[in-house]
Amino acid sequence: MNFCEPVFAHARQQPQQLALQLPQMRGRRQHALQQIRFGDLLTRVGALQTGLLQQGYVRGDRVIIVLRPCIELYALTLALLGLGMVPVFIDAGMPRALIQAAIQASGARALISHRRILWLTCWWSSLRPLDRFCLEGSGPGFRPLKQLQRIAGPVRSADMGAEDFGLITFTSGSTGKPKGANRTHGSLIAQHQAIRHHWPDEPGDIDMPCFPVLVLHNLCCGMTTAMPPLDLARPAQGDGRAALEAIRDMRVTRLSGAPAWMENVARAALKAPKKARFLRDIVIGGAAVSETRQELFRRAFPFARIRIVYGSTEAEPVSDIELDQALAAAEQDGYLVGPPAPGCELALVNPALPLDNEQAVEAARVEPGQCGEILVRGAHVLKGYVDNPEADRENKIACADGLVWHRTGDTGWLDAQGRLWLAGRVKDRIHTGAGSFDVFPFEIVIERRPEVHRAALVQQDNAIAVFLVLEQKLTPQLLNALQHVMTSMQINTLQLHITRALPMDRRHNSKIDRPALRQRLARGQQPHRILTTETTCPDNI
């Protein structure tokens, strides 16, 4: 097997079909547009494969690629995978120390990037043994990428085993050590098949994904990809109107992205004089979708089928739910993400119990309807991390049939219909003398108040605090509501912090950065006021 074989087959069958349209961004502005057809992409892959072989690279060599979405990024990825070499992707949003650690842990032979990044890293000792190639040309210690682009030769597709390395993607781990997710050729193919079964494509579809890895899936489907005009390092700042114009120009039929960016597109769509009726399918993932955003998406795209997808790098997809079904269940105190995807098995377990083997998983299962940590397994679930036994022990539980249980770190429960609800993260649970509680139920109840835009409940040592972004001024009714939820969760004392904005994750700008809020508490940030379940709220504030 080789993950690239479907891409190469489609390119031979439909060489004139547009494969990629990729806007080139300078910050939030588009300054150029790249396009390439499947046949020309295949030619580019063959030329790169010839250059890699002439430079002495062999099967199994790892190559770090740090490039913005461009034709070279995907041509290089396909060229390496086709030869049995291993592209390594590193999250550029990580702190510099973690990026350096990821480079050292990657075991790579070469680094391919932009001039600006190579200049910034030219003094890093961890890079000195690496061959370095620059997209824009040569410089101190690096050569132009054109040295790898030779006269086109035959496109090669090495016969790979299911467990052979395919892609490696490094993200920051909870322990501070970067984790390299091991996407083998077998798991890449299984994830592609699971996504296609989960989200079928139709002839003539044009897809606009906000997630760059989905482009590889689209290429395997023989589907045209039109990336949005967006700085992927800051998706929440993306220009929704520009994205909507690109959707209209390309007559995009499928759209996917994280909630923060999708909100910008939805707000632009509400102001547009005409609805994009050809936009048939929308998928939202990467973070929980609040009730307010669910209602916004339905108003903005009345003719589209909209789904909320739950998954992760290690397991994509896990489940999904139609937006209208999620809205109909909005009175519950959790986020409904639907039944498990076909081929995905779930286990809800007590995270406080040992989970060393699959027998321990069975013993730790919670009763139906009870909240527990979400474990997933299936052919599309990644089995481990690269050269990181610590991360494997923390997140993977081997099974006798060769699959693994992956610990998502999320908490939730299954309802009577077998649908999954999210309640929070294990590491974000609130611990009191009465037990442990998840944060989403508290936050959802408070965010239903008209005064509140966003809410975040966190704990630092013994201090429990809620951070609120307000739509209106603080009212006695809101304080009473906070005290009511405190009583239900048996929180005796609560710090109330009013803030203009909540810190968000770097990757999708859609998840609350709770560690940053805990750091504020650790530094002694003073609350707006202290609430207890016994104090009486004033009539005037």
Describe this structure in words.
The chain is an alpha/beta fold and 541 residues long. Among the domains are: 1-160, 3-Layer(aba) Sandwich (Rossmann fold); 431-532, ANL, C-terminal domain (GMP Synthetase, Chain A, domain 3, 2-Layer Sandwich). It contains 16 helices and 27 strands. The radius of gyration is 24 Å and the shape is globular.
Output the CATH topology of one domain. Answer: Rossmann fold
Q: What strand line-up does the widest sheet have?
A: 2-1-11-10-12-13-14-15
Output the structural class.
alpha/beta
Unreliable residue stretches: none
Number of strands: 27
Please work out how many helical segments DSSP would assign: 16
Strand content: 25-35%
- Overall mean confidence score, pLDDT: 91
Shape: globular
How big is the Rg? Answer: 24 Å
Largest sheet: 8 strands, mixed
Kindly provide the name of the CATH class of one domain.
Alpha Beta
Query: If classified by CATH, what would the architecture of one domain be?
Result: 3-Layer(aba) Sandwich
Determine the fraction of residues in helical runs and give it as a percent range: 25-40%
Q: Layout of helices and strands, plus pairs?
A:
Blueprint: H1 5-13, E1 18-26, E2 29-37, H2 38-54, E3 62-66, H3 71-83, E4 86-90, H4 96-106, E5 110-113, H5 115-120, E6 131-134, E7 143-144, E8 165-171, E9 179-184, H6 185-198, E10 206-209, H7 214-221, E11 224-226, H8 240-250, E12 254-257, H9 259-271, E13 281-284, H10 291-300, E14 305-310, E15 319-322, H11 323-328, E16 335-338, E17 345-349, H12 358-364, E18 372-377, H13 389-395, E19 396-398, E20 404-414, E21 420-425, E22 430-432, E23 435-437, H14 439-447, E24 452-460, E25 463-470, H15 476-489, E26 493-498, H16 514-522, E27 529-532
Parallel strand pairs: 1-11, 3-4, 3-5, 4-8, 5-6, 6-7, 10-11, 10-12, 12-13, 13-14, 25-26
Antiparallel strand pairs: 1-2, 8-9, 14-15, 16-21, 17-18, 18-20, 19-20, 20-21, 22-23, 24-25, 26-27
